Structures are given as structure tokens and as C-alpha cells.
């Protein structure tokens, strides 16, 4: 009997684990689907990185990246930028526009997603959600044309000002109303599209939590605070870390289109400066150096934001 019991409790031999190549072969369909996007990212994102070398060279298009001579000192282009009398104002303008844009455009999709999630009518909810996506697909050229038209003395914005008892002004003249129109249009364009990822996160909420909250007598605000917000917190944190790195990357195309003779010097940011120096003036090495400086600062911001997040809540950090 003892031998039979011992034999019954003996461990069942487990089959050999699949090797790495066997696992690859098993997932061959998914790997083939991912191959083209990976190759495209490698070609268009990683291969061109060697081009940043021209920031440290006296770049001549006829000689190419490798044939151009190194600068002496090799950081000369950076020196030229920081010695520019306008560099301080350009950096300040970029920080101001980027920070204010982040403060207003980042929480707007979160609030909009929470409000949509609270709607009970499915048809109305879908209609509102679909309509909110439309501004995202409008060209920036069209948006700027709309802003120029609405901001004129006979435009929609001034009609609203007149109804409120205020005088008509040319809102396109100078930089007084630039941030209001720039940030307002950014919120309008991105609030619907940005809410998609938060709505996806909210779809994973266990509905039984709402039933328990109803039994406990929780009001709508308490449900948002204790059920909805903890659900989207990880997604919100990751997106915030990534958006912090874009503080210096303003939408220079929109700013460029909103500039005119009355506000060009006041609205100059790093993006428009790089465009003018690199594309219009042909100073490719100088423009590359300025853009490389921005990229390094953006990396530091992302790394710092992730470090702070990891100390506060390691589960929500990127790495």
C-alpha cells in the first residue's frame, strides 16, 4: 500500500519547454504583420539620426554629411544661438506657449471623456462623440483661416464681444489675443480625439462597482472620484509623462500661419526660428543644432517626469 501511495504522489513529468525559435514560428503571423511597420519606423526614424552630425559640422550639401568639415570648436552653432540677442525671448515664448497649451489641452479630453461616460442615452452619446472627432481632421491651414476671419473686426469673435458690451478690436493685430485663439483652437481640435483613449480605459470598469456604490448611497461625484478616476489614472500618468516632453515642441505650423507683420517678432518660437533659419535661409547645420538642443531638453523633461512618477507610484511609470 505504501508503494502504491508513493507512486500515486510522484510528480508527472512535464514536456520539454518550447525553444525561442519554436515560439517565433508559432507567432509567425503576428510577426509578419508587425514586420512592415517596424521596418518603416527603423528606416524613417532611426536611420536618419546620423544626420544630427551636421549640427557639429560646417555642412556643405555638395560634400554630404560625412564629407563636410568639423567645426572648430565643434559646438560653435550652439554658441551662435545662445549669443543671439533674441534667443532668450525665443526660448521664453516657446516655454510659455508650450506650458499653457499643456495646462489647458491635457485635462480637457479627460473631463470630456468622464462627462461622456456619465451620459445614459446611447444614441446621444455616440452622436456627441462622433461630432467631437470632426475638428481633429480639419487642416491647420483651414483652422488658421477661420481664426483670421473670426478675429477680424467684422468676425464672429467681435460679434460676441459686441453682444457682451465690449468694443470691436482687430484680434489678429499684435499678440494680445494670440494665446487665447491658439490654445482655444487647440482644445477645440483635440478634446474629442484625445478622449478616445480615456473612453477605452473607462470601458474596462467593472459595472458591479456602480451597483455597490448605489447601494452605499454614493452620489455621482463620489462615483467619479472613487471608481472612474482610479481607472484612468495609469493612462493619464503615462500620457502626461509623454506630453511633458512636448512642451518645447509647439505647433509651429499654426504659429507660422498666425504670424503677420504686427506680431512676428513677438510670436517667434523655436519651431518657427528653426524653419526660417533652416528652410528659408539655408543654414541647415545651425537649424539642426537648435533642434538638437530642443530634443535633448525634451528627453530630460520626459526622464525627469518619469523619475518623479516612479518615486510617487512605481506602477504608473514608463520604466
Structural write-up:
The chain is mostly helical and 319 residues long. 67% of the residues lie in helices and 1% in strands. It has 16 helices and two strands. It has helices at residues 2-8, 20-26, 28-46, 64-67, 76-83, 87-105, 107-118, 122-133, 140-151, 156-163, 178-202, 207-215, 220-244, 252-258, 270-280, 284-312; strands spanning 57-58, 69-70. Strands 1-2 form a two-stranded antiparallel ribbon. α8 packs across α11 (178-202), α9 packs parallel to α14 and α11 packs across α13 (220-244).
Secondary-structure blueprint of this entry?
Elements: H1 2-8, H2 20-26, H3 28-46, E1 57-58, H4 64-67, E2 69-70, H5 76-83, H6 87-105, H7 107-118, H8 122-133, H9 140-151, H10 156-163, H11 178-202, H12 207-215, H13 220-244, H14 252-258, H15 270-280, H16 284-312
Antiparallel strand pairs: 1-2
